Amino acid sequence: MSLGIAGSGWVTPLGSGIEFVWDRLLRGEEPIAEQIGASPRDRTHPVFRVPEAALASLPRDPRLRRVSAISRFAVAAGLQALESAQLQLNRGHPERIALIFAISNGGVTYTRRFYNDIVQTGAQAASPLLFPETVFNAPASHLAALLETTGATYTLVGDGAVGLPAIRMAEDVMASDAFDYCLVVGAEEVDWLLCDAYRQWRLLRARTPLEPFRTSPRGAILSEGAGAILLGREGAVKIDKTNPGRAYRNRREAAEILELLLADLVDPDTGLIVASANGTFVDLAEAAAIGKIAPHAVVYTPKPAMGESVGASALWQVIIAARALETGEFPPVLHPPADTPLRIAGQGPRTAKTVRAVVVSCGLNQQAAGVRLTIAP
Amino acid sequence: MSTSAVLDGKSAPARVAIVAAGIVSPLGCGLAETLGALQAARDCVAPVTAFPVEHCRCKTAGQVKDEALDTDRNGRRDRRVHRATRMMIAALDQLFAQDRQFKPQLTVIGTTSGGMSYGENYYRARHERASLRHAPTWIANYPPQKPVIDAQERFGISAACQVIANACASGTNAIGHAFECVRSGRYERVLTGGYDAISELVFVGFDSLQASTPEKCRPFDRDRSGMVLGEGAAVLALENLELARRRGAAILAEVIGYGISTDNFHMTQPEPSGAGARQAMERALASAKIDAAAVDYINAHGTATPFNDAAEGKAISQLFERVPVSSTKSMMGHSLGAAGAVEAVVCLLALQHQFLPPNIHFRRPDDDVDLDIVANAARTAPVRTALSNSFGFGGTNASVLIRRAAT
Q1: Best exposed site among A239, A302, B33, B167 by fewest CB in 10 Å?
Q2: Do residues A188 and A309 lie in contact, with contact meaning Cβ atoms separated by under 8 Å?
Q3: Is A241–B180 a contact, with Cβ atoms under 8 angstroms apart?
Q4: How far does B159 lie from chain A, in Å, by closest CA?
Q5: Is the ipTM of this complex over 0.90?
Q6: Which residue has the higher pLDDT, B217 or B264?
């Protein structure tokens, strides 16, 4: 099954709005990292946060009054995607649009605050206002309420790759004639607790920049935001093949699974691969697989410019691949390695008329998946 | 790995068989123990032992006995994995004992909280400046997809996972989506179900909302005062009926319809008229192309909260004429992401053994809803088609219809 991208939207540390962020990516800009920690005395971590101005267009809806940051990012990105497709839901058939929400850590800030009250004071101090926002499907629920959709709403949980299985799930859902569109949204909010946990795993870098594809990875920088794509039956850019991948057991197997994924998705017309390299073991796995299966393709990763946004990141990759196909341009990879056999974007020509791009994502918690995008020549 | 190329394309909807099932719940481990508990109307709710509850209003829950999780597959390595993983392994162990040939192309599982208690351990240890020696294990086993991936790995399954977290409707949504995947012809075999293990954060959360009760859980009773939590895991092997027959698989039952709706009313309360619940049930009936009169039993969401049961009761009485209804949560608590899957297995047992599972602790009917409650004891009855409801936070509603296998 082939689905078209009818609209897209994103909220990122570089701002919001497809054109605005795309221009900043093309110019090779990167956000300024903020240091966050449990307290000023504690260890701090650099993160890329969404600037407040990026949410200026959010509607003043009572439903959004107390919601978590992740919900606000998701609503802003979802509304942009519908606007770019010129689709007004409440004037059509609200049951004919499905919503699939890709999420990894969820409303981690409210979850931490809620549990902190229990740990510090006891169960009697737990807040009934915070608890509902700790539920994984809270952001999807707020978005559905604002869009007034009454049909299928699913929240899919997973690691940083989850946005791609969400697209695969959209394909499954759209196999039914009951739906005209499926809005796929991925979102993440950053919190010091998340940084702390990833640091325990030795996956974070203590200072910027994020340097991808190094032979000895130095770690990722976490970020936040949301990406949304509206999938329909038509669209200039099509998602013409998905591969749901499978779980990898260890880092060595990650490379093998990525290789199988790419072998399934890459063909001679594939000129661009948008990878998920984030300064961790993922880079080594992706570099090995791409070098073997698609050495001819230009390789781009947005993570040095936008950070590792986990639940949102794969959707950002898809949006970038679609823009690259539409415009024939691609942004430069920031802080690339000095020597790599890969054709890293930005190290050669900045334009390439290609009709196919593959997005591949390898999450940090055993999931890997891919999709292929095609534009009519 | 991709199946879309070979199974793509429109054709007549496939019929979807349940060819195997596994269950671990407070009622017991396996189909036989679960059947025995249902027929005996056993109350399996007990004082909470997993964490302190002295500051909570509610102090009870349905809890899975640790012995149920000591399967042959639980070696030394399993001591490190989360309790939820061990429940999934125990349920899958039963499923594959029934059908060793079942090889899923996709796994769709519902949950709400994954390995939440490991996240709690991490936060507490960090807060108390205690040893973080186990932190990597806690962090690695905290994500909701991890119990599914680990359990799959234990049985040599490499299918892609879709882990759905639609609050309390997750399990039914997972089964419904899996059903649609087989029915559309995109997949031939899908493993589905749900799991959730009890955790302090979630328990205290429902307590803080005063949604859980310090008394007995009395769904649809006039004096109902709230839910009790539970835990468990249940899995179903769904397969294209024709292909299952061709390979000689046992057909336990057939999933015939699925309805999903979003009511957008409130984050934690259902739309009071029951419109969202009704829409999910109507869509399930339309999906199955059957009339409401064809339904012989409804396993209600029936949390025993005043709001849920009023809305669901209204929706049922508007759509159906005196169909027997019970909420088996009265016996084992509300297992959240597992509930839909556990209750689908309860429906399966009702269809196989021709009885109506009971709604225990029922004393006085609610004057506002006119329902035929299967009160306090199981009833023998012809059951050809059963409907299972699940409704969750965020206004997500789901219903599945299951039909008895043709004899």
Answers
A1: B33
A2: yes
A3: no
A4: 6
A5: yes
A6: B217
* Beta carbons of A144 and B166 less than 8 Å apart: no
Tell whether the model's pLDDT for residue A6 goes beyond 80: yes
pTM summary value? 0.96
Surface of A (161-220) touching B: CB under 8 A: 165, 168-169, 171-173, 175-176, 193, 196-197, 200-201
The alpha carbon of residue B42 is apart from the nearest alpha carbon of chain A, in Å, by: 30
**What are A61's two structure tokens?**
């809806």
Q: Quote the percentage of chain B above a pLDDT of 70.
A: 95
CB of A41 within 8 Å of a chain B CB? The answer is no
Tell me the residues of chain A between 227 and 246 that have a Cβ less than 8 Å away from chain B: 241-246
Q: Report the C-alpha gap between B122 and B142 in whole angstroms.
A: 10
Beta bridge partners of A36: A45
Q: Which fold has domain A3-232?
A: Peroxisomal Thiolase; Chain A, domain 1 (3.40.47)
Q: Which CATH class is domain A237-375?
A: alpha beta
Q: pLDDT-based confidence at B3, cuts 50/70/90?
A: very low
Q: Which of residues 107-136 of B touch A (CB under 8 A)?
A: 111-112, 114, 120, 122-124, 126-127, 132, 135-136
Residue A47: both structure tokens together: 């993160």
Residue extents of the structural domains in chain B: 16-404
Segment B146-204, tens digit of pLDDT: 999 999 999 999 999 999 999 999 999 999 999 999 999 999 999 999 999 999 999 99
Give B16-404's CATH code, choosing from 3.40.47.10, 3.40.50.300, 3.40.1400.10, 3.30.70.100.
3.40.47.10
Domain boundaries, chain A: 3-232, 237-375
Contact at 8 Å (CB) between B375 and B391?
Answer: no
Interchain pair B396, A200: CB under 8 A: no
Q: Is the dihedral of CA A43, A310, A143, A61 positive or negative?
A: positive
List Cα–Cα distances, A177 to A95, A171, B325, in angstroms: 12, 12, 32
Is pLDDT above 70 for B266? yes
Q: Identify the DSSP state of A11.
A: E
Residue A327 DSSP SS3: helix
Q: Are strands B372-373 and B324-326 parallel, antiparallel or unpaired?
A: parallel
Tell me how far apart the alpha carbons of residues B281 and B263 are, in angstroms, rounded to a whole number.
13
